[in-house]
Amino acid sequence: AWRSLLVCLSIRASLKHCEGSKSQFFGHISCPSYPGQQPQYGSSCVAYYPTVVPMAAQQPAQQQQQTTLYPDPWQNYEYFGQYGKLGIHTEMIKDEHRTQSYLRAVEMHAADLKDKVVLDLGCGTGILSFFCARAGAKTVYAVEASDLANWTELLVASNGLSDTIKVLKGRIEELQLPEYVDVIISEWMGTFLIFESMLESVLYARDYMLKPEGFMMPSHANIYLAPVCMDEMYRDRIEFWRSVYGVDMSVLIPFAKKCAFEKPIIDKPIKPENLLAPAITIKTMDLRTIPKDEPYQKTIVNFEFKAAKAGNLHGFAAWFDTLFKGTVSNEAEFRRLFSQMDETTDRKAQLEKQAGVVTLSTSPSCKDTHWHQDLLLFDDPIYLEQGHTIRGTIRYQRNPDLLRHLIIDISFCVVEQPNRSAAKKFYLWGNE
Predict the structure, then answer these.
(1) Residue 187 bears catalytic tag
(2) How far apart are CA 214 and CA 355, in angstroms?
(3) Rounded distance between C-alpha atoms, residue 372 and residue 141, angstroms
(4) Active-site residue (options: 153, 187, 200, 352)
(5) Of the listed 144, 153, 174, 196, which one is catalytic?
(6) Cis status of the peptide bond prior to 73, with omega within 30 of 0
(7) In sequence order, which ranges of 340-399 are alpha helices (DSSP H)?
(8) Maximum CA pair distance of the chain?
(9) pTM of the predicted model as reported, rounded to 2 decimal places
(10) What is the DSSP letter of 402?
(11) Tens place of pLDDT for every residue, the chain, 432 residues?
(12) Whole-angstrom Cα distance, residue 180 to residue 331?
């Protein structure tokens, strides 16, 4: 499960005082990368000839210059080690909403894939490569940096697709494809959309390997935020300690709050009725045009919510969606859909059909996924009357010491209750 990856990275992040990282002593397949500027079309493109290079020599300049408390701030040894096992891929493929959305997108945009060259970045078992090959792609370069690539190559051969799907083992920043690609398809999303920092690699591939007229799958992405009431969870994790089998354990309540709410809660799906107000969009990305570094720069968004009903405000929930737009999409209907992404499942299906777009949403109003939602809960609830105004700011950025992790700050006040305000910093996932 991808949550096991998060736990693994978190445990390894706590080992601050280790003298070195195993990843410094392991090589993996790579070859010379493009120079800093994008090559001109028509220039020679060297075929892929793998060589084993010590990992320290493979780090991009940006990574080599990073000064942190950790021997390997990218945690590549742990990260790719987890993706080299089958468990995480089992959960992802069994997530029907996720996998079916990609399949529907490939089938809807089959005309854009037929006889085209496709890059499947972070291909895992190669399931998306198989979808693209079945849709008529001429060549699919299936890139996988973990050891699972060896099994993926066997899967391709056993399905008789070795002439179409070319498995390349290595990080995309260290590979050189034999040709430019027409399409980049990737399932790069992590919790809070950008955790794991895989999007950075996808945008690198876009800048250096995608033809000017090429397109991305998915093509767009959004992050949402909404205030939530989590009474049942609060009773279960906090109020429980007031009296346990007749024993007063209320002295534990401050500690229980720290244990329960110190980090974002990522494994408990919420329901639409938990929302105290409609969600707002805090980040919108057009993956064809967004600068590579922008998603991980410090982002500051001011927000204001009007409580749609009375209830205890325990904190906020965040989730995301992605959209798959192709050349057959209706631009006007797409923009309409894009502005109404948090609709109910039935309404969204109607909008998708009109727009010629597939959406993959992790909203609590849609079918649950392995991502669920991110719960950012405060220690003490604030009771709101219907119509009360929640005004505040959310700030998020890459953790400067653990580069696949995030730091999220939220501060807010209730306008009608001048003395009721709160602020909290959440580490997703490793602490400083």
Answers:
(1) yes
(2) 20
(3) 30
(4) 187
(5) 196
(6) no
(7) 345-355
(8) 79
(9) 0.85
(10) S
(11) 445 566 556 555 544 433 333 222 222 333 333 323 333 333 333 233 233 222 333 344 344 445 556 788 999 999 999 999 999 999 999 999 999 999 999 999 999 999 999 999 999 999 999 999 999 999 999 999 999 999 999 999 999 999 999 999 999 999 999 999 999 999 999 999 999 999 999 999 999 999 999 999 999 999 999 999 999 999 999 999 999 999 999 999 999 999 999 999 999 999 999 999 999 999 999 999 999 999 999 999 999 999 999 999 999 999 999 999 998 788 777 777 767 665 556 666 777 888 889 999 999 999 999 999 999 999 999 999 999 999 999 999 999 999 999 999 999 999 999 999 999 999 998 865
(12) 26
The β-bridge relationship of strands 210-217 and 220-228 is: unpaired
Tokens coding 163: 């002439």
Label residue 298 left, alpha or beta by phi (over 0 means left) and psi (-120 to 50 means alpha).
beta
Which of these, 362, 360, 316, 356, lies nearest to 335 by C-alpha position? 356
If you count DSSP H runs as helices and E runs as strands, how many of each does the chain have, helices first?
Answer: 14, 16
Rounded to an integer, what distance in angstroms lies between the CA atom of residue 156 and that of residue 78? Answer: 26
Q: Where are the beta strands (DSSP E) in 139-286?
A: 139-144, 165-169, 181-185, 210-217, 220-228, 280-286
